[in-house]
Amino acid sequence: MNDLLKKRRSIRKFKQQPVAPDLIDKLARAALMSPSSRKINPWEFIIVTDPELISKLSACKEHGSAFLKGAPLGIVVIADETKSDVWVEDTSIASVIIQLTAEDLGLGSCWIQVRKRMKDSSTTSEDYVRSVLGLPGNYKVASVIAIGYPAETRPPCDENELLYEKLHSNKFGNCMKL
Ligand SMILES: Cc1cc2nc3c(=O)[nH]c(=O)nc-3n(C[C@H](O)[C@H](O)[C@H](O)COP(=O)(O)O)c2cc1C
């Protein structure tokens, strides 16, 4: 697990190759294993492999989503907001679980933020994704996780560069020695 955490970096360039169906199944199952508050499981996942839809989704923001166009797979993480008041936390956890599972399967991934983002000056990214995918109004859109076989390498996390000053021992302000 520690190695997985070190190795995982955001990957935004992908090989053209479609993701193998058995790996897509594993990603989908992993998403459904995500913990959620009171086990309400307000999240749902749209597994998008249709290149036309992926291309449309890549235009969901002015910045930070165009690279999705080059990905063979996008998992759109949504939630029924009427089911849980902490759907944001639940969908965030599920998004990370998808990313770590992707890494474990030899795939690269990157989170694309949709919630609270704008497509342009008049349309929210969420409304845009809603119209592209036909989502009912009670569904909120948290993220799109772009996934594919990596076509770029990123250096793993360097433990010497971790932000150790953000760790406190017992009380705030007490430096934690590791
Ligand atoms: C909540 C969240 C939202 C993010 N949104 C985007 C995004 O919209 N576009 C993007 O290219 N990267 C996005 N990222 C990826 C971050 O930029 C990336 O995780 C951060 O720079 C650290 O790099 P690393 O993942 O390679 O360690 C997001 C990450 C998180 C956790």
Q: How would you describe what is shown here?
A:
The protein has 178 residues and is of the alpha+beta class. The chain has one domain: NADH Oxidase (3-Layer(aba) Sandwich). The protein contains 5 helices and 4 strands, in the order ααβαβαβαβ. Strands 1-2-4-3 form a 4-stranded antiparallel β-sheet, with helices on both faces. α2 packs antiparallel against α4.
> What is the N-to-C order of secondary-structure elements (H for helix, E for strand)?
HHEHEHEHE
The shape is globular
What portion of residues belong to β-strands?
A: 15-25%
Enumerate how many helices there are, as a single number: 5
Query: Helicity, in percent?
Result: 25-40%
For this structure, what is the CATH homologous superfamily? NADH Oxidase
Largest sheet: 4 strands, antiparallel
Structural class: alpha+beta
Kindly report how far apart the N and C termini lie. Answer: 19 Å
List the helices and strands and how they pair.
Blueprint: H1 2-7, H2 21-32, E1 43-48, H3 51-57, E2 73-80, H4 87-104, E3 108-113, H5 125-133, E4 139-148
Helix pairs in contact: 2-4
Bound molecules: flavin mononucleotide.
Q: Which descriptors would you attach to this protein?
A:
single chain, 178 residues, alpha+beta, NADH Oxidase, four-stranded antiparallel sheet, 4 strands, 17% strand, globular, binds flavin mononucleotide
Short description, anyone?
With 178 residues, the protein is an alpha+beta fold. It contains 5 helices and 4 strands.
